[in-house]
Amino acid sequence: MDQLIKAFGFPATLVHGDTLVWDRWRWLKPRLRKHRGGRLLDVGCGSGAFTIGAARMGYEALGLSWDERNQRVARERAAIVKAETAGFDVCDVRQLGSRSDLLCKFDVVICLETIEHILDDLKLMKDIAACLKPSGTLLLTTPYKGFRAIGPEPDDGQLSTTEGGGHVRRGYSDSDLESLCARAGLDVDEISSCSGFMSQKATYLFRVGCGVNRLLAWAAILPVRVLPLFEGRLGKFLKWPDYSICLRAHKPSVSHSPSLAPTVAEIVNQDLLSGCQ
Predict the structure, then answer these.
(1) Please, what are the domains in the chain?
(2) How high does pLDDT run on average in the chain?
(3) Gyration radius of the chain over CA positions
(4) Which of 1, 83, 8, 90 is nearest to 50 (CA)?
(5) Which of 40, 68, 166, 269 has its CA 20 to 30 A from that of 240?
């Protein structure tokens, strides 16, 4: 992989075991451009592709992962592509709330395909909100509750009852994310989706092809992955749901409910904002 990154630069960081990473970057990039600059936190950064991409767009970006090897690899890749403002720290995101040094420090927090691995997802959402500055933005993706399994494993496999790396829940609906945001004191701005029919079928072919030759499998599906022609239209025609649901939300700068009695969201907002002062 390092040789590919040296040859092709940052795009090669998006090409590894999970073929849907490219879709998440295509969803994330224009939203990062809209909020360009400032400090960014990547919660559950994996091998650092999105942290590195954000740094290349002008962010001071910090990626968090519990895996020391992942963080070492991420630092090496950031150095190769000269993403000088990308940093990486070993941190179990379940303990994010204990990191007082991260409280109210970030203009943007990204959390891609991570929350479905965490049993106490509300705690994680509240901890993310606490890391945002007032008016800061959360960008999050996670499997859609109604997705169709790409293959028998792991999508149709048994859900994990422990946080050992597997999914602890199938996914989320619009109302699930709206409820989590409300209880964490965040306002929802947009709910969308990514990884449509063609992407999912390419991923299935890739998984099958890897049983023969991984390099040939990539060569076979790469044109479909980088040029997702008719992705949205085909999915609608076939009534085939996208694999991931995508959320853009923000942390209010002030409470804005006209009600005299404080709502749960207002109480959470007041607690979060008081910690930012």
Answers:
(1) 2-195+244-274 (3.40.50.150), 198-241 (no CATH)
(2) 87
(3) 19
(4) 83
(5) 166
